[in-house]
Description:
The protein has helices spanning about 15-25, 40-50, 65-80, 105-130, 150-170, 190-195, 200-210, 220-230; strands at about 5-10, 30-35, 55-60, 85-90, 135-140, 175-185, 245. The chain is α/β, with parallel strands linked by helices.
Amino acid sequence: MRLKGKVAFITGAGKGIGQATAVRFASEGAVLGLLDRDAEALKDTQRQVEAAGGQCGIFPADVRSSSAVRSAIDQTAQRFGGLDILVANAGVAIAGSVVDMPEEDLDQVLEINLKGVFRVNKYGIPHLLERGGGAVINIASTQGWRGFPGWAGYAATKGAIIALSRQVAMEYSKQKIRCNSIAPGAIDTPMNEWVFAQADDPAAERAKWDEGNPLGRIGTGQDIARAALYLASDDAEWVTGTCLVVDGGQLAGGG
Ligand SMILES: NC(=O)c1ccc[n+]([C@@H]2O[C@H](COP(=O)([O-])OP(=O)(O)OC[C@H]3O[C@@H](n4cnc5c(N)ncnc54)[C@H](O)[C@@H]3O)[C@@H](O)[C@H]2O)c1
């Protein structure tokens, strides 16, 4: 029960990494505010959180709306008496190289991936300050560290999330707020199911990704949930301003 008595707010909690993190945090004793634009997916997460013995408020909303993000965060703090942990996870994968990518696609990915994270930090941190400290975890990507052709806009948002997290860490360290990012490698979530489905043979494509990873498999939501749990907990009390790469060795030289 490493998060006993803690209140956490998580975006993109309906599926994938956000869902795994919500269920893991609940099983470690946290109560949760969960936001996702997919209302049905959010209900599924709520069922899993309750099955794990947890409790959550759910907010079907889009991180592109400042007022919706702010209201969900405020309601979470009000319902549970404060807020200790933020996980800014909602994001979309929009492909395109610099020349081919329409500017409208860049606007979309900036609005969701970067400004969505910014909003969670902006409206969440005042509650952490009221509590006298807390932990912020922003979900970036290995694409923030290394180029993968065809993902110009997405990679730009992920590099920016790593820099923003460092910035937040320095701005609030004296007030005992720690802020770190996580850079997941390829993870088995609905986001990548879509990528596999674009290939002629999705199963072969998936197998290729597994084989290309130094540890022999792509990641799971649980791999990232465990990293988020570490950064959210007191185990990471002297860890701030860093980016935790969780990728099975991909950045170290794998595929
Ligand atoms: N899957 C990977 O391989 C991988 C790798 C590196 C980083 N990431 C990052 O991890 C995060 C989660 O990815 P995932 O793989 O779990 O994705 P996913 O598509 O499986 O789940 C993302 C969730 O976020 C929600 N969401 C998307 N846009 C939203 C919006 N505008 N407002 C509110 N909710 C929204 C979706 O409805 C969905 O439930 C993203 O930031 C992604 O960029 C994923």
